[in-house]
Amino acid sequence: MSETEHHICSVRLYVTIFSALMVFTVLTVLAASVNMGVMNNVVMLGIAVVKAALVISVFMHLKYNPKILWVVAIGAFVWLGVMIALTLSDFLSRGWMPNQPASWL
Amino acid sequence: MSDAHSSPYLAHHFDDMEQQSQAASFGMWIFLAQEIMFFGGLFCGYTVYRAKFPEAFSAGSFSLAIHWGLFNTVVLIGSSLTMALAVRAAQLGRKAGIIKWLVITMVLGCVFLGVKVIEYKAKIDHHMIPGQHFEFHGGGKFVVAGHGDEGAAGGHGEVEATHAEPDEATDHDAPADDHGETAADVDHAESTHEGNGHGVVEVDPNQVEIFVGFYFLMTGMHALHMVIGVGLIIWLLVLTTKNRFAAEYYTPIEMFGLYWHFVDIVWIFLFPLLYLIGRH
């Protein structure tokens, strides 16, 4: 594992990732000016997730790190998803049942 | 790594340099997982309120200076690149390279914070800061609902904002419906509407105030992380000049790199969610 643990990336790789991040930044700004309804959020968050994945895997070296760190990193986002999903399942479903006040918050 | 057991950089409670390095990485990632949950609470609250007040969040987003947000995005991602190059210089044992890239990273971080000051000052000058004197006058296709003169509709705290909810909810029982677009009034359009062919959208200043509250809280918490980061870079620069790092030991620089990239990732999500949702 010691070969992969201290993997030294080339400057070219870092600059390539940086360039990709810049391209995605321009893309997300352009996409935001087009009205796509709900898809605006999907595209915006999709691009952000891709950018975050690039930063995590290369800049943060996760790609070259032991799998146990992948578990921690991916697990953190899974728990974040659980938190948001459960919270929204409460707030967004209020008023769905008959004898329930329609307002929420 | 046969000589790893006798390195001067090895703390006595570790078997070898490999174990020591992996323990640090593991601990740092656990810390970052905690940071994700910490910021996650803010993102979660943002999501709930945006689902409730979509037009007001779009109006608040439209009021932000997108050119500064974009500029800061480029600056921060650029600082991530220079931070990665600082870690690379550390891996190669190049002291001058570490110092050069750390200083550039720090300067970019300070540029980001400076722009943030400019943005905050503009918001404060326009009374777009949550509290007793909050004002929102609309902009673009967004107009103030009820349309009182010069911000008379603004200036209410969050308590009143929540009190205003029940009577709105009696008109529309479905949560997060887009009631504002149906109420496009002609005389409202004359005052602030710039006219891009679409109808005007009425928003409640109290709801915009909630967006602005999230804006300040989320960017403020992010900026606090940047300030701490700049302080840590100064600490790393001192250690570097004292020859505390070598090609076989650069763990503090590597761990700080993880922290800095994490702060970058937070901004990667903050930028679209705060600046870009009211642009179409």
Describe the protein.
The complex is a heterodimer of chains A (105) and B (280). Chain A is mainly α. Chain A is built from 4 helices and no strands. In chain A, helix 2 runs antiparallel to helix 3. Chain A is flat. The mean pLDDT of chain A is 89. With 280 residues, chain B is an all-alpha fold. Chain B contains 9 helices and 2 strands; from the N terminus they run ααααβαααβαα. Chain B has a two-stranded parallel sheet. The longest helix of chain B is centred in the C-terminal third of the chain and has 37 residues. The relative contact order of chain B is 0.18. About 18% of the residues of chain B have low confidence. Classes of the chains: A mainly alpha (105), B mainly alpha (280).
Straight-line N-to-C gap of chain A: 51 Å
Major beta-sheet overview of chain A: none
Overall, the morphology of chain A is: flat
Rg of chain B, Cα atoms, Å: 24 Å
Please summarize what this structure is:
The complex is a heterodimer of chains A (105) and B (280). By secondary structure, chain A is an all-alpha fold.
What is this structure's SSE topology?
The complex is a heterodimer of chains A (105) and B (280).
Chain A: H1 2-5, H2 11-32, H3 38-59, H4 67-91
Helix pairs in contact in A: 2-3
Chain B: H1 17-52, H2 54-62, H3 66-91, H4 95-125, E1 142-144, H5 158-163, H6 165-171, H7 186-192, E2 201-203, H8 205-241, H9 251-275
